[in-house]
């Protein structure tokens, strides 16, 4: 799985490191940053909207820029993974 999020094509399947579920690149929830956070200050000073883009699954705090990995289902080296993952299904790669 790639940790270089910018290389994942918009609309391609991603896997979230936090909730271990899949979604398509470009889907996310916007959460406003706290005004006293360093991220908020950086966003404002650089002209960006002070929001975090999180995994689209409610209750997950995975960041789409850090915790989104390309889905490699259908690869011969991973025969148990489907080429197209199911939404809301947990695909656990660790304990």
Provide a short characterization of the protein structure.
This protein has 95 residues and is mainly beta. The chain has a domain at 5-28 and 54-70. Helix content is 8%, strand content 19%.
Uncertain residue ranges? none
- Rg calculated over all Cα atoms: 15 Å
State the major sheet: 3 strands, antiparallel
β-strand number? 5
Estimated structural class: mainly beta
Q: What is the general shape?
A: elongated
Note the run of SSEs as H and E: EEEHEE
**What percentage of residues falls in helices of 4 or more residues?**
under 10%
- Strands in their spatial order, largest beta sheet: 2-1-5
| Percentage of residues in strands | 15-25%
Kindly report the average pLDDT value: 88
Structural write-up:
The protein is mainly beta. It contains 1 helix and 5 strands; from the N terminus they run E-E-E-H-E-E. The strands form 2 sheets. Strands 2-1-5 form a 3-stranded antiparallel β-sheet, with no helix packed on it. Strands 3-4 form a two-stranded antiparallel ribbon. Strand 1 and strand 2 form a beta hairpin. It is elongated, with a radius of gyration of 15 Å.
């Amino acid at each position: 799985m790639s940790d270089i999020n910018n290389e994942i094509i918009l609309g391609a399947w991603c896997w979230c490191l936090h909730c271990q579920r899949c979604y398509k690149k470009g889907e996310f929830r916007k959460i406003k940053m706290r005004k006293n956070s360093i991220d908020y200050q950086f966003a404002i000073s650089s002209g960006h909207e002070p929001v975090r883009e999180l995994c689209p699954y409610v209750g997950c705090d995975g960041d789409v820029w850090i915790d989104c990995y390309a889905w490699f289902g259908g690869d011969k080296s991973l025969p148990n993974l489907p080429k197209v993952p199911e939404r809301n299904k947990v695909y656990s790669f660790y304990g």
